Amino acid sequence: MVALALVREYVYAYATVSPVDGSLDWMIAERTNTEIMNQFLDMIEDRYPNEHIAMVLDGASSHRSKDLKFRDHVSLIRLPPYSPELNPVELLWDELREKEFANKVFASLPAVVFQLAYGMKALQMNQAAVKSLSACHGSSMLLHHHECEMELQ
């Protein structure tokens, strides 16, 4: 008989950031795949119908799928393999981990999701911080995307 079993649960955060004005758009999902990525792109397209968006993507399989729907005013720019340092949104994930998740234990995945949403909203409200964190890479005209995996053990 096993008294305790370790169960891993995951939640995924999708985010875009504009280094120009510090705007942040995000979405939390239970999984990551091309369907969810298409939903995220639909959300971004709906929020910015009159703007052309250049979105930087990492090499995740959902970003390379033949089923990824291309949009008229969203250009997808793929980073080279193993180059997360080129994606300014990576610094936002670091900030989120440090401010919202460091030295915390969560009893459930819903508690992780709540904290993640709280942290994302706090970042979204602080455009100066988002601009500072994302613009330091010198990519001043791009809207950056990345997804982050949060794990509860």
Task: Explain the overall architecture.
The structure is a single chain. This protein has 153 residues and is an alpha/beta fold. It is built from 5 helices and 5 strands. Helix 3 crosses helix 4. It starts with 8 loop residues before the first strand and ends with a strand.
Low-confidence stretches: 137-144, 149-153
Q: End-to-end distance, in Å?
A: 20 Å
- The count of strands amounts to 5
Here the CATH topology equals Nucleotidyltransferase, domain 5
The gyration radius over C-alpha positions equals: 16 Å
Q: How much helicity do the residues have? A: 25-40%
Q: Please report the first level of CATH classification, the CATH class.
A: Alpha Beta
* Share of β-strand residues: 15-25%
Walk across the major sheet and give the strand order. 2-1-5-3-4
Give the ordered list of helices and strands. EEHEHEHHHE
> How many domain units?
1
What number is the mean pLDDT? 83
Biggest sheet details? 5 strands, mixed
* Number of continuous helical runs: 5
CATH second-level architecture: 2-Layer Sandwich
Structural category: alpha/beta
| Dominant shape | globular
